[in-house]
Amino acid sequence: MTAIADPARPRRKIGKTDPIQKLAILIGVSLFAAAILAPVIVPFDPLGQSLLSRLRPPLGFERYSAGHFAGTDELGRDVLSRSLYGLRLTLGLAFAGALIGLLIGGTLGLVAGLRRGWVEDTIMALVDMQIAIPFTLVALLILSLMGSDLTVLVLVLGIAGWEQYARIVRAEVRRLTTLPFIEAAWTAGAGPIYTAWRHVLPNLVSPLVVQFTLALSNIVILESTLSFLGLGVQPPQPSLGSMVGLGRDYMPTAPWIVLVPAALIVALTFSVQIFGDWLRDRADVRLRDR
Amino acid sequence: MIAYLARISVKSVVTLFAIVTVTFIATRLSGNPIDTFLGDGLTAEGRAELIRYFQLDGTLWQQYVAFLRGVVSGEFGLSFVDRRPVTQVVGERLWASGQLLLASVTLTILVAIPLGILAAIYRKSWIGSAVMTVAFAGYAVPSFILAILMVLVFSYWLNWLPVVGNGSFLHFIMPTIAMSGVLVAALTRFTRNAMLDVLGQDFIRTARAKGLSEARVVLRHGLGNAGVTVISVIGLQVAGLAAAGSVVVESIFSWPGIGQLLVNAALIRDYPVLQFGVITVAVAVVAINALTDVAYALADPRIRLARS
Amino acid sequence: MFRLMLTTALAALPLYASAQEITVGAANVSSYLDPGRDHSNVGSQFYYNSFDTLIDRDHSKLDPEWTPALATSWELIEPTVMELKLREGVTFHNGEEMTADDVVFSLNRMMQATFPPYVVRAKDRLANFPKAEKVDDYTVRIHAAREEPLWETLISLQQVMIIPEDYTKALTGDPDVAEDSDYEAFALAPVGTGPYRVAEFQPGEKLVWERFDDFWGEQAPLRRVNVVQISETASRMTALRTGEADIITNIAPDQLSLIERDPELKTAGSATALFHVMIMNQNHPKLEDPRIRQAMSLAIDRDALNEALWLGKAVVPSTHTMAEMGALHQPDLVTFEYDPERARALLDEAGYDGFEITFDTASSYYTNGLLAAQAITQMWADGGLNGKVVVSDTWTGGSPDLMARNWSNPMYFADPFGSFGVMWAPEGPSQSEGRFNTDEAYADSWERFRYSTDVETRKAAYRELMERVKEDPAVLPLYRPFESWGMKKSIDWAPMPGHIPYVLDFRAGNITVAGS
Structural domain boundaries of chain B? Predict the structure, then answer.
C-alpha cells in the first residue's frame, strides 16, 4: 500500500494503446458508469431486508430467488444492488481521499518549493517520515482509537498519499523557479502567489493528474482493507470491503456474498492502475524517471 | 561518514520520541479500558475501584511523566488484560510475526528476482510482457482478497490447508503467499529496472563485444553489478512494506503476531501493550530506514554528499 | 489423495488426538483464569473442569438437586449461619491438602474483598455474606447479614470456588500476605481441586488441561484436552472438518447444516440460559417519555427474528423468565409482546417527530448481534420509528448519549436474582450507569423479591418488578440464543441443563470418546 519508488513501469511506445490497456479502460469506464448510475440501475434497495429469503444463491443455482441475479445476503438483501452501491461509496471515498491528499500535499509541496530553509526542511522531514511508516498499520490504529465514522475515514484516506504530491510539486517548483522566465517575473515585481498561480500551476497539471489516478487505486485498496477489517465503512452501509469482511462467516455456505464484491474490487484497482499507467505514458515522459 | 551516521541517529531518536508521544496522547484522549472492555455491568463504586487498580486516576501529565520514567528505566508495565509484563506479551508475538515476515521476504526474493531478470533479458519478447503484466496484476489484488480466495478454495472446499495459527509448516503456506503477492509484484519490477540499467552500461557492451554468451553476460556481469547492494537495499524496503500487510494477513489466519495484538490493544485501550507494541514496531521501522539510508550511502558516496 | 497424504503427515503432529486426548476449537479463550474474578461467558466455559465449589448440584437436571462436593454436609445452625463439614483428603493440583483455612481464605477473599476485581463481583451477588470463619480443620461457618432464601444457590457459585491459600499468598511478595499481585499471578497459574489441572495457559490463545490423578471424585475420562482459540466461525468449522479440532464452540444455526451434512460430524445445542436483550436509556432527553420506549419494544417482532436468524431454535420469552428458575419461573406472565399498531398509536400520543434513535451494537460479540440490530431498525422503520445502527466495540451502556443497544443478561445462577436481579437491582449496574431509574416502590418490591423466604411472596414481588419494566421500559429480552457445538461423531457430549451458560463440562460421565 505504501508505494515504493518504481521506475520500472513497462515502457511502452507513447501514443500506442495495447489490447490489455483497452480492455482495462473499458472495464474502468463501465465501473465508473455503474457507480454513478447505481441509484437508477440497481434492481433493489441496497438496505432493504427480506428476512424470509436470506442467503439465496445467484442465478442458475438451486433455490435462486427471482430477480436477485447475484443472490441475497445474510439479511435477504440483494447482493448485486449492495455491491453497486458499495462500489459507488468506495469510489466516492477514494476520490475524496485523493483530493484531500492532493490539497495537503500540493500546498505543502508548493510551500516547500517556494520557501527554502527550515520550512522546506521540516516539510521534507515529514515527507520522509510518511514514506517510512507502514501507513496501513497507522491507519488501523487511528481508526481503532477514534472510532470509525466516515469523516475520520476520509481524513485517514486523505493523509495516506499526500507525500507523493508534495514531492512532485516541490521538485517541479524548484525546477521552474530556476528558469529564466520565472526569474523575469520575479524581477518584474510579481508576488509569490501570482507567480505560483500564473507560472507554476499550469506546469503541474499533468504530473498531478497522473499521480491522482495512481493514488486512487492505492486508496481503493486501503479503504477496502480497512472496511474488510471492520474499521472502515460501518453496516448497514455497504462498501465493497465491508461486504467481503462481513460475508466471511458465510463463505463456506454462501460464497457469492464475498465473491461478487471481491471481484469488483480487483476489477476496479486493476483497471485504474492500467489507466494511470497509460496516462503517465502519454502525459509526461519526465515523470517516469522520478 | 560519522557525521552522516550521527545525523541519521538523531533523526531516528526524534522520530521515535514523536511517535511514542503521539500514541500516548491519542490513546488516553480517545477512551479508557474500563469503558471499552470492562464497562459492562459495573456499579459506580466498582468503576472507581478499577480506575485506581489500573492507575488511571492521575492527570494526563502525571501519567505521561510516569510513563516516560518507566521507559527510561525499562519498565513498560503490565497488560491491562492479563496482567503479564508487556515485554513478555509483545515478545511472544514478535517472534511469530518475524517468522512470517522472513518466510514472505524469502519467498518474494526467490520468485521476484528470477522473474525480474527474465523480464529484463526478454524485454522485447512476449515473455517479458507476460511477466510484467502478471506483476502488474499483483499490485491490483489486495492481500486480503488473495488470502480469502485461497482460504475458500484450499480450506473450505478442498480441506487441504489449515487456516488457524502457526502450528506447522502447512500453516505457513497461505499466509506467506498472501503477504508475498504485492511484494513480488514490486520487487519483480524493481529487479527488471535495475538489470536494464546495468545492461545498458559500457562494460556490458564490452563483455558482449568479447563474444561472451548472453546468459554469462547477464548472470556474471549484470547480476554481479546490479546485485548485492540493490538487493540488500530492496530487501530492507520490502521488509517495511511487508510490515504493513502483516496486520491483515495475521487477522485472517489468526496468526498470533504483533499486528493483531496492536489493533486489539487499541480497540480495548490496553495502553501498556499498545505503547510498548508501537515502540517495538517503530524501532524496527526506524532501524530499517536508517539501515537503508546507510546502505545507500555506502553503495554510492554521491548520495552521502548530496544529502549533507 | 492429496488430502489423505496431508492427513497422514499431520497425524505425526500433536494436533491429532489419541482417543483420550481431544482438541477444542473455542471462539474465545479467556485472558485470565480466576473463578472469583470472572463472570464472563468466556470464562464460564473453563472453571468447572478445574475447580470445585463446596456444594454442587446434579447438572443433568433442570431443577436443583444439591449434592455434596468439597463440603460433605451442611446445615443452618442459625437462620443466618450455615455450618459446613468439609471433605477430608482433598488435594489441590499442586499437592497441598485442602483444609478449612483454604476454604475460609477463598470465601473471604470475595466476601471481604479488597482486590478491586473481586470487590466488583462480591457486591452484585455476595452482598449478604459478611464473612466465613473456621471452626476446626474440617468445619467452616458462613455468616449472612440477613436471612437468606438462596443459601445453596449462592454457595455453589463459580465465584466461590475453592483455591489454595498458601500457594496463592506465596506467588508474589510476602508469602504470608495476600497481595493484589498474588491474585494477578494466580489468574495466570490457576490451581484448584477439580478433575483436570491447568497444564498450560496462554492467555487468549490456548489452554491445556491434563487429568489430575489425585482428584477426590471419579477420575476424569480424558487424559488431555487442548483448547485453542479460533475466533472466526468459518475457521472453526474448517478446523473441525480438517480434524484439527474434535469439538468446536459457538456455531450459529445458519452454519449447522454444513456440519450436519458431513457424515463424520454432528452437532449438539441448546437454547442457552441467557437473554440477548435490548436496553433503552430512560434518561435520554428524547426518550424520557416511556411511550416512546414502549413503542420501541412493541415494534420488534421477536418471533420473526427467531425464525429468520435462529431458524426458530431460539426461545422468545413473554417476560424476563427462564425454566431454569424453577419455582420462580413464570411463563404465564406476559410483559413483552409484538404490537406494531399499538406502537404507532403510542408514538402519535407521545408526539414523536421522527427523530433518529440510535441502536448500538458491537461488531461480533453476540452471535447474530449485528444482524439482529439491523433487522430491528428495519422493524422500527415499519413501525414508524427512525432507527440507525451504530457499530462500535466500545461499551456505551454508561454514556448519557445512549439511546438503545444490545446486551446480554446471562443467568449467573439459577434464580431470577441471578439473571434480572444482578443487572437491574436498585443501585445495581444499570442504575449506576444512569440509564435506569428506581424509586422507593421499586426498591421495596426488590427487597421482597430478593430476601423473602416465601416463594409465593418472591413471585408476586417479581411480577411487580416486571410490571414496572413494562410500564417504563429499560430492557426488552429478545430471546435465548440457540448455541451449538460441533463435534466428531465419536464424541458424546452435550451442554447440560443444570449449568450456567457455556460450561464445557468434561467430568466423568459427562463426556465419552469412542475408544477410550
Answer: 86-307
**Tally of CB atoms within 10 A around B3:** 9
Residues of A in contact with B247 (CB under 8 A): 136-137, 140, 229
Q: Could you tell me which chain C residue has the CA closest to the CA of B80?
A: C31
The CATH classification of domain B86-307, taken from the options 3.60.15.10, 3.30.565.10, 1.10.3720.10, 3.40.47.10: 1.10.3720.10
Q: Is residue A221 part of a domain?
A: yes
Q: What is the pTM of this model?
A: 0.86
Q: Which residues of A touch C369 (CB under 8 A)?
A: none
What is the rounded distance in angstroms from the CA atom of residue A164 to the CA atom of residue B291?
22
How many whole angstroms separate alpha carbon A288 and alpha carbon B17? 36
**With contacts defined as CB-CB under 8 Å, which chain A residues touch B139?**
217, 269, 273
A3 is a domain residue: no
pLDDT in tens, chain B (308 residues): 678 788 878 878 888 888 888 888 888 887 777 776 665 666 677 777 778 778 888 788 888 888 888 888 888 888 888 788 899 989 888 888 889 988 988 898 889 888 888 888 887 788 888 888 888 788 888 999 999 999 999 988 888 888 887 878 899 999 999 988 888 888 888 888 777 777 777 777 777 777 777 667 776 666 666 655 565 556 566 666 666 677 889 888 888 888 888 888 887 788 889 889 888 888 887 787 777 777 666 665 554 444 44
CA distance A144 to chain B (A): 5
Contact list in B for residue A277 (CB cut-off 8 A) is 136
As a three-state string, the secondary structure of C85-121 is: EECCCCECCCCCECCHHHHHHHHHHHHCCCCHHHHHH
**Prediction ipTM score:** 0.85
CA distance B243 to chain A (A): 7
**Whether the Cβ atoms of residue C232 and residue B254 lie closer than 8 Å to each other:** yes
Residue A194 lies in a domain: yes
Q: Are B282 and B270 in contact (CB under 8 A)?
A: no
CB contact under 8 A, C237 and A252: yes
Task: Flag if C391 and A49 touch (Cβ within 8 Å).
Answer: no
Q: If you measure CA to CA, which chain A residue comes closest to C305?
A: A51
Query: Residue A90: which CATH number?
Result: 1.10.3720.10
Q: In chain A, how many domains are there?
A: 1
Burial of B169 per CB tally in 10 Å (0-12, 13-18, 19+): exposed
Domain membership of residue A44 (yes or no) is no
Cross-chain Cβ contact B83/C15 below 8 Å: no
Q: The domain containing residue A240 runs over which residues?
A: 31-37+70-284
Contact C174, C3 (CB under 8 A): no
Q: Does B41 touch chain C (CB under 8 A)?
A: yes
